[in-house]
Each structure stands twice: as C-alpha cells, then as structure tokens.
Design goal:
The chain contains 13 helices and 11 strands. The protein is α/β, with parallel strands linked by helices and 305 residues long. The mean pLDDT is 97. Bound molecules: pseudouridine-5'-monophosphate and manganese (II) ion. Pseudouridine-5'-monophosphate (PSU) binds next to helix 2, helix 8 and helix 12.
C-alpha cells in the first residue's frame, strides 16, 4: 500500500502500511472527551501496548497543528489527554476546517474512520459508537458515526451502543445504511456496560478468522461502507443492568433539563455516568476498550494484507 500525502504518519505506522503488516486505528475523542485525566492517557498507552502484543501496529488518529496524524507519540497522547475538552471534538464536518486553520482536533469514530480509510487502514477499535439518541424522532439527533459506517469502508470493533442511545433505532438506521452488524461470539447486541440489550445482531461469528473473511469479501466485491463488529464487555466487568439503566435515565433527564445539545450531549452523559457511579463505569469502560483492541488486532492479523 502506498502512503497518502495528506496524512502525517508515525514512522512505525508508515513502515507497517508500506510493508503490508497489520495495523489498527484508534480514536482520540475517547481520550479527550470520553475519560478523565490521567486515566485517559494511561488507557490510550495501554491500548497501543496491547495492539503490539497482539501483533498489530496501533495508529491513534488526531488532527494536530492542522495535520491529519495517523500514529501518535506518547507526548501527543499526553497533550490530548491533558487538554481534554479544550480540544475540539472533530467529526466529518470539522476535519477540513480544523486542517485549514492549523488547529487541533480529537477525532470521533466518524472522523477516525475517514483518516483510517485515507491511510489504508481497514480495522479500527473503540469503546462505543455514537447512534440514534433517545427522543431522536423529535430532536433528529443521530450521530454522524452511523452515516460514516454507511459510506466508509472501515470495520469498527466496539462493545455495542450505550443505552444513552435508542439501541433499537440505532440498529434500524444501520440496516437502512447497509451496515452489517456482527456479534463476536453472540447473537445479541451488547449495550456497552452490559452484555445484552434485548436486540439481536445480524450475524454471529465465533472467530477473528471468520470475521476477517467477511471483511475481505466485502472489499474484494467492492461493496463500499463499514462493518460493525460488536464485542460484549468481559463478564467480570459487566455492570448490573437495572443500576446502570437508572443512572443513565437520570443523566438523560438532567441533560434535557439543562438543555445540553448537539455535540456536547454524549460527553456530558459520559461524565455524568462516571460521576454518579464513582468510577465503576470507568473501570468497565477501560476493560471493554482493551477487549476490543485485542479482537481488532486479531482480525487485522487474519485479513489479507
Ligand atoms: N461513546 C462512548 N464513548 C465515547 C464516545 C461515544 O461510549 O468516547 C465518543 C466517540 O468518539 C463517538 C462520539 O464517535 O462520542 C459520538 O459523539 P456524537 O454522539 O456526538 O456523535
Ligand atoms: Mn449528536
């Protein structure tokens, strides 16, 4: 694979891409807006370590000084984590503006998919994706992540969608956009903090090799668009459903009462849930991200390079 002139690669990522070695993308909104400092930086570094341990080169993506960066160094991870919400949360609509202004952006799932695709990376690991928000029939708040999955050919490994979202409508939207939802070792759509949501995935696959074959086939056939791979949180970190549901319910109500809107809603809800559960949800969040990085690395390793 040739390198793209619009991308600033880390040396390690550039070498891996040129030599056809497995690479996985990682996002940066989860660092700046999804977790508190310093756990965010520790988690970002540990994700990179796990990817390497599993035989894949990690490519954390962000916009820094207007450059589209694929593969960051530890100082850049530290900067994004410390700056937190002072860094612009950047999705598809934001990339060109931030690049033109020479600014910094922490990339969402949608934003990271765009850079990954430009760089020739086929697999991306994160925690949870954005989706159709509860009440979206009124607000029309549907994450740009879903639109991106519909159009950009990158496979995203996540632990499902949080029940801050309407999981049923999120699955309907993915169906409309032609995005296959593959459960790893399960037929059920996981709900991020818990292993089940009451909704089914389109497919169940039990090995990284089986998933890699489906991804290779999609690329070979030239069918554009992403694939969503959902990987339930490990049993020992799964939270009590009624407890987390109550916390989420209260957080959604508080967001509505305060009139939190647009791109601020998801970070607001994440922070609120973390505060109320005293960090238990953060431990779960971190554990499921590591679990996803491991799976993504195995899938990348099993794909045709
Ligand atoms: N869900 C999480 N943690 C996160 C996010 C979502 O559990 O950090 C972040 C991801 O970067 C995702 C973004 O792409 O929020 C979606 O934001 P919005 O709902 O505004 O599209
Ligand atoms: Mn939104």
């Amino acid at each position: 694979m040739k390198l793209n002139d619009n991308i600033l690669y880390s040396k390690e990522v550039a070498e891996a891409i040129e030599n056809g070695r497995p690479v996985i993308a990682l996002e940066s909104t989860i660092i700046s807006h999804g977790m508190p400092y310093p756990q965010n930086v520790e988690t970002a570094k540990e994700c990179e370590r796990i990817a390497r341990e599993e035989g894949a080169v990690p490519a954390t993506c962000a916009i820094l000084g207007g450059k589209l960066c694929v593969g960051l160094d530890p100082e850049q991870l530290e900067y994004l984590g410390k700056a937190g919400s002072k860094v612009t949360k950047a999705s598809r609509r934001d990339i060109a503006v931030i690049a033109a202004r020479g600014g910094d952006g922490a990339l969402t799932v949608a934003g990271t998919m765009i850079l990954a695709h430009m760089a020739g990376i086929k697999v991306f690991a994160t925690g949870g994706i954005g989706g159709v928000h509860r009440g979206a029939t009124e607000t029309m708040d549907i994450s740009a992540d879903l639109e991106e999955l519909g159009r950009t050919s990158v496979a995203v490994v996540c632990a499902g969608a949080k029940s801050i979202l309407d999981i049923g409508l999120t699955l309907e939207y993915l169906e409309t956009k032609g995005v296959p939802v593959i459960g790893f070792g399960t037929n059920e759509m996981p709900a991020f903090y818990t292993r089940s949501s009451g909704f089914n995935t389109d497919y169940r696959m039990d090995s990284p090799e089986e998933i890699a074959k489906a991804l290779d086939a999609k690329l070979r056939l030239g069918i554009k668009g992403g694939t969503l791979i959902v990987n339930p949180v490990p049993e020992e970190y799964s939270m009590d459903k009624s407890r987390i549901d109550a916390v989420i319910e209260a957080a959604v109500k508080k967001a509505n009462d305060l009139g939190v809107k647009g791109k601020n809603i998801t970070p607001f809800l994440l922070a609120e849930i973390k505060d109320v559960t005293g960090g238990e949800s953060l431990d779960t969040n971190i554990a499921l991200v590591y679990n996803n990085v491991r799976l993504a690395a195995s899938i990348a390793g099993a794909m045709k390079q």
